[in-house]
Design brief:
The protein is 33% helix and 17% strand. It is built from five helices and five strands, in the order ββαβββαααα. The chain has two domains: 77 residues, Ubiquitin-like (UB roll); 70 residues, Orthogonal Bundle (DNA polymerase, domain 1). A hairpin with a 2-residue loop joins strand 3 and strand 4. The protein is an alpha+beta fold. It comes from Pseudomonas laurylsulfativorans. Pfam families: Fer2 (PF00111), Fer2_2 (PF01799). Keywords: 2Fe-2S, Iron, Iron-sulfur, Metal-binding, Oxidoreductase.
């Protein structure tokens, strides 16, 4: 039987204490213990990006991160991006506006990566956006719309139009 540990962290601003098997991934902690199902389990091997979340503002693949590694840290999932009144984050709004999704399965991870892409300043060109976002796979092929959404959201955030 594996060891169980208490893991304390803030998820979307809410302090949580979870008693977890020491082998529990952050992805499974988020989905199965915090009951936030927006973060998706795709490949479970760190290759598709569907599980992307932010830990202390940095994007991470939650399927490759142990929950114990985020003890005492801040985790943001797709559910934590919108404002409390329901107003979408600029990236979320741009994804809707430019149809940057089809089936939607990859969309939470794409959006979390896009927010990091903008925050880290990788939006100087469409090629730079594509390179940064290359860890997020969209089987439907919505890539041109995703790039447009990221470019537009970055411009709007820079201009303070959101």
């Amino acid at each position: 039987m594996a060891d169980r540990n208490k893991v304390q962290f803030k998820i979307n601003g809410e302090h949580r204490v979870l008693e977890l098997d020491s082998r529990t991934t952050l992805l499974d902690a988020i989905r199965e213990h915090a009951f936030l199902t927006g973060t998706k389990k795709g490949c479970d091997q760190g290759q598709c990006g569907a599980c992307t979340v932010h830990v202390d503002g940095e994007r991470v693949l939650s399927c490759l991160t142990l929950a114990a590694q985020v003890d005492g840290r801040n985790v943001t999932t797709i559910e934590g991006l919108a404002q409390t009144d329901g107003t979408l984050h600029a990236v979320q709004a741009a994804f809707v506006e430019f149809d940057a999704f089809q089936c939607g399965y990859c969309t939470p991870g794409q959006i979390m990566s896009a927010v990091a892409c903008i925050r880290e300043g990788h939006t100087g060109s469409d090629d730079a956006i594509r390179e940064y976002m290359s860890g997020n796979i969209c089987r439907c092929g919505a890539y041109p719309h995703i790039v447009t959404a990221v470019r537009t959201a970055a411009a709007r955030l820079q201009e303070g139009k959101v």
